[in-house]
């Protein structure tokens, strides 16, 4: 399978509130869904060595990352009884307070949606080839360490 076969999860820049709202609204017609769970990852104004993060510049090794996102999605569908799932991750610059990761799970019952959402976020953080460079107010930067 080549990279064009994988669902593109990347959004250039921040994930907008409108994109999140539209995604939720599209599920109102799916009457077999009883629960949704949502994770929104937001850029923090961390203070590191006396400097404050202003934004994060996200980069990825796209072919590898899309393959890994696909594998994580497939594993979640096998592990949990989900109706649907959406994952979006930012690339490029995302400022403090903006959303960089949106994970949205749906199922007939809340436990499956909630457990799947947590599973997906942890797998994404641990396994995908997405890297963040913290940008500081003095124009310096450093690679972000995921916690």
Your description of this structure?
The chain is an alpha+beta fold and 147 residues long. The protein has one domain: Aldehyde Oxidoreductase, domain 3 (Alpha-Beta Complex). Helix content is 31%, strand content 38%. The chain contains 3 helices and 8 strands, in the order E-H-E-E-E-H-E-E-H-E-E. The protein has helices at 17-25, 62-79, 110-127, and strands at 10-12, 35-42, 47-48, 51-60, 82-95, 99-107, 130-136, 141-143. Strands 1, 2, 3, 4, 5, 6, 7 and 8 form an 8-stranded mixed β-sheet that branches. A hairpin with a 2-residue loop joins strand 3 (47-48) and strand 4. The chain is globular and about 50 Å long. It starts with 9 loop residues before the first strand and ends with a strand.
CATH class: Alpha Beta
The SS-based structural class is alpha+beta
Poorly predicted spans: none
Estimated radius of gyration: 16 Å
Tally of DSSP helical segments: 3
Shape: globular
CATH architecture: Alpha-Beta Complex
CATH homologous superfamily? Molybdopterin biosynthesis MoaE subunit
* End-to-end C-alpha gap: 32 Å
Average pLDDT score = 93
Q: Helix amount, in percent?
A: 25-40%
Q: How much of the sequence is in beta strands?
A: 35-45%
How many domains, in number, for the residues?
A: 1
Report on the biggest sheet. 8 strands, mixed
Task: Give the structure's gist in a few sentences.
With 147 residues, the protein is of the alpha+beta class. The protein has one domain: Molybdopterin biosynthesis MoaE subunit (Aldehyde Oxidoreductase, domain 3, Alpha-Beta Complex), CATH 3.90.1170.40.
